[in-house]
Amino acid sequence: MVPFALAGIAAFGVAALAGWLAGAPDVWLWTCLAGALWGIPGLLTMLRHDANRRRRRALTHPEYQVHEG
Asked: What pTM was computed for the model?
């Protein structure tokens, strides 16, 4: 899911840039900014969840390797 979150944040950023260059109304620019900013906590939540899931899996399945990084 992390690549989807990154793609969403990037899409909002590109839309904001395109809207700014095209002279879009301010409401569109603020909407794009809000979408990109709301994506950041979602991305951080997913990263933390994935790290916790890897740790739990390593505890219950000895054959599973955890690579910190």
From this structure: 0.73
